[in-house]
Amino acid sequence: MTDDGIVSAFRLDTARAGASAKASPMIDELRQRSPEFAHLWQEHELPSPEFNVIRQIRHPQLGTLSLEHSAFGVDGRTGLLLSV
Of 28, 20, 12, 26, which Cα lies nearest the Cα of 73? Predict the structure, then answer.
């Protein structure tokens, strides 16, 4: 996931959890410390709640593992994602 995708997902998760007010001091600090974060936060782009990405993990014995990560919204359950 790209930096803009991470910030967008954070924005969506914060809003979905109803934690915008609680997260506000941390978001303000991140905006002050990182011009890049401030720019990405201002874009207001929200990701689709459904996604498919390949994640790579470096295992000390097995080497690099490529795993598919998918998330899906659950019908009738606002704010609930199934992550596989």
Answer: 12
